[in-house]
Amino acid sequence: MNKIQKFSTSRRGYGGNVYERYVDRVLSKHFRHEPIDLSFHLKGWFRLIEFPVYVLRLLLTSLFPNGFLIRNFQTSFLPLKKKHGLTIVFHIDETLSPLASRIFQRGVERLFFLFARKSDPIVVISKYWKKYFEDRGFTDVHLIYCPYELELYEISDEEIEDFKRRFGLGDKPMVYIGKKKKKKGEKKKKKKKTKIKKTIGKEP
Known about the structure:
Structural class: alpha/beta
Number of strands: 6
Helix content: 40-55%
CATH topology of the largest domain: Rossmann fold
Number of domains: 2
Oligomer: single chain
């Protein structure tokens, strides 16, 4: 059975990490799968203390991979000849990250496009990112959508009615927009919510 090594750079429940956990689950069923944890243990500017170790481990594994190597965007910035591997990109956006993280991510992005070889396979999760890389000269870009375990979202009619009773919704329609967070576009959500109210409130 072939061996696959895969970098992981965060322990938090970000969307990209959830996607990568699905990847890990599938890989472990069909290959010898070795996750390589490069996540930082410290926070903020204290991460600079760990950074040399991060780069050293990344460098050694990238230079001497022990199998097929899967990177994410944060581990694909070194100017190395990449063989027998690919890069998974969930999204690129540091705008609302903490300052230390924002500086690191911007540096990674610039180095990635400076050193990346155009023929390296890249896996993305949406048509937007596929076009994004192709417009920048990458020719080996593959689209694999995020998987969903539909059984986790099956809600019975009884649960729906109970929810409506508890919150006094009656027969009002329910629309889930997303989490109430600045990074998820909270201000835009408020505007959309107002538009939805106006639309629903109109007479047919």
